[in-house]
Write a structure and sequence with these properties.
The chain is of the alpha+beta class and 591 residues long. The chain is 47% helix and 22% strand. It starts with 11 loop residues before the first strand and ends in a 10-residue tail after the last helix.
């Protein structure tokens, strides 16, 4: 029973024409399609079925079994051929023997007995006293000068042949012998043959073949038919059990048994047997070599699997030290591990934690390490989600860039970088709440600088140890922009802002100069995210700018802290209004 309720009875194969459907009609089909259907019904895929079959047949044990079976099949075929040859030879021999004896008996009856009985053509047929010189009687041994009748001659001839020939037996038997001869013991074959010859459609002769794997025996039976010259004698003889014989009646049978050991014919195939032995030895030797080679290949395969597992483990470990994009490009062969650099237009991201040194002095090293690792993990996941290449971690700072080894174009790279920076600031605000609940007094506040420009990117270092990174004034500018950003703020260069101005709103800051860059650089501080950017939930209150870093999700504030947050906001509002009355510009940086 196959899966899905399909049985092999559902496929009635017939006449090599196709498949017979349940209505009795014939459909022409593709046999590969039938195999595929059977595989599907058995729950195998087509490729799975052939793969399983190939795997099993390609095993060394399967090859050895196949060779042994082939040799055994060859030996069986030779044995069957020997048996058939022996059968044909013994049949011909049996027919030749019975024909010879039948011709001899016929000759004896016609040219000896009949001539003596007629008293002609035989010298000295009569004695000097007028008595018969030669008598033809069944008990000729008791009568001087007598000769046997043909039936007696046939019976005694069979005894002589049986004694002289071990593999040949001749019997002249009947189920109605003369009374003085005693009854004949007929075996099953002889009795069956005698009955069969007395039927209307009787054959000329019957054969029976028997034997073992070591010898072969053929038995032949032919009818003894009553001749017209013998009818009167048999009907008048006082010892005859039947007195109404007629010409053509089956008086008895001549049975010949010929046997021969199969080994007698075996050496007739000495050249073939020699070739088979040579081929078999070669086959066994080849199977042994295949077995040895398969064992060697299996050992190599096991070593290769172990090596692959080791390399896979090592590659996974190495991946922790490389950006995913760099890791993939190296293992795909897209980049060579050589001291080669390229000049490309990149968008560079640089972030740093404000007052991290002061915060670290309040924490134990283990706690600080766990906090910093958690921060880097969260930021790295955001960077990977936006397609950034994380260059390195420098203390509490992160250097990343867009545009190599994978790029979506300068504009899209800049937009992705700004979206990533916004997502990082939002995630950091959420993390700060969790860290406060864990007892960390001062939250971590990040400053981010982003710049777009040409840099050299590639492998820097020595032939023994190298680092995939970027160098150039544009990367230094990103770090400088981070330095003038407010905690929780994002500062862009004009080159970046021009590419994302439909994504964010920003305020222009005083120009800055940087060593290595001849022009003045005008920074832009991101204040808000427009609708085309990464939209915030409606319930979120956010404001980022010079001296401002507000991120508020009222729906997530529990009742126990809601009153405290409200008082803090009211106090901040009072101070803000007081500063407006004093003419403050609100540009002072958070100390």
């Amino acid at each position: 029973m196959l899966k899905g309720g399909c049985t092999f009875q559902h496929l009635a194969l017939g006449r090599n024409r196709g498949i017979q459907d349940r209505r009795g009609g014939w459909m022409r089909v593709s046999w590969p399609a039938v195999i595929e259907k059977l595989a599907d019904a058995a729950g195998w895929g087509r490729s799975d079925m052939f793969k399983k079959l190939y795997d099993r047949l390609s095993r060394p044990a399967s090859v050895l079994v196949a060779v042994v079976l082939a040799l055994a099949g060859l030996a069986a075929a030779v044995h069957m051929d020997l048996k058939e040859i022996s059968n044909q030879a013994l049949r011909k021999q049996a027919v030749s023997v019975t024909d010879l004896l039948s011709d001899f008996r016929q000759y004896y009856a016609s040219n000896v007995v009949a001539r003596l009985a007629s008293g002609t053509g035989v010298a000295g047929a009569a004695g000097e006293d007028g008595t018969a010189g030669v008598q033809i009687v069944h008990n000729y041994a008791d009568v001087p000068g007598a000769i046997p009748i043909p039936a007696t001659l046939s019976i005694e001839l069979g005894e002589v042949i049986k004694v002289e020939r071990d593999n040949l037996t001749y019997r002249f038997v009947s189920d109605a012998p003369f009374a003085h001869r005693g009854s004949h013991d007929l075996d099953t074959f002889e009795s069956t043959a005698l009955k069969r010859f007395r039927q209307a459609d009787a054959p000329e002769r019957l054969f029976k073949t028997s034997g073992t794997i070591f010898d072969h025996t053929v038995r032949l039976a032919e009818p003894v038919v009553m001749q017209p010259s013998c009818v009167g004698c048999h009907n008048r003889h006082p010892s005859s059990p039947i007195t109404d014989w007629a010409a053509g009646d089956v008086r008895g049978i001549r049975a010949v048994t010929v046997s021969q050991p199969l080994v007698d014919n075996l050496f007739s195939f000495r050249w073939l047997l020699g070739y088979i032995a040579l081929a078999g030895g070669a086959g066994v030797g080849f199977a042994g070599l295949q077995w040895r080679q398969a064992m060697h290949f299996r050992s190599l395969s096991d070593q290769l699997k172990e090596t692959n597992r080791f390399l896979n483990t090592i590659s996974l470990k190495l991946a922790k030290y490389l950006s995913p994009q760099v890791y993939r490009s190296i293992f795909r062969g897209e980049k060579d591990v050589a001291l080669v650099t390229e000049r490309k237009k990149l968008t560079i991201f640089f972030s740093d934690l404000k007052d991290f040194t002061e915060s670290s002095e309040r924490m134990q090293p283990e706690e600080l390490t766990a906090l910093l690792n958690e921060y880097f993990t969260e930021m790295s996941e955001i960077a990977a989600a936006h397609g950034a290449t994380v260059d390195k971690f420098i203390g509490d700072a992160i250097l990343a860039f867009f545009g190599d080894p994978e790029t979506r174009g300068t504009r899209e790279d800049a937009r992705a970088c700004v979206e990533m920076a916004i997502a990082m600031q939002r995630r950091l605000a959420v993390l700060n709440e969790a860290w406060r609940r864990r007892g960390i007094e001062r939250p971590l506040r990040a400053r981010i600088g982003i710049n777009t420009g040409y840099c050299n990117v590639g492998n820097f270092g020595s032939t023994d140890r190298m680092d995939y990174t970027i160098i150039g004034a544009e990367s230094n500018l990103a770090a400088r922009l981070e330095g003038i950003a407010e905690p929780g703020g994002i500062v862009l260069s004009y080159e970046t802002y021009a590419l994302v101005q439909d994504q964010v709103t920003a305020v222009e800051l005083p120009p800055i100069t940087l060593k290595g860059i001849a022009r003045e650089v005008i920074p832009y501080a991101v204040q808000d995210v427009l609708g085309t950017g990464a939209a915030e939930p409606d319930a979120v209150v956010r404001r980022v700018g010079p001296g401002v870093n507000i991120y508020l999700e009222p729906d997530k504030i529990d009742r126990s802290t809601r009153a405290e947050v409200a008082r803090t906001l009211e106090a901040a509002l009072t101070r803000l209004r007081g500063n407006e009355g004093q003419g403050g510009d609100g540009q002072g940086r958070d100390g």
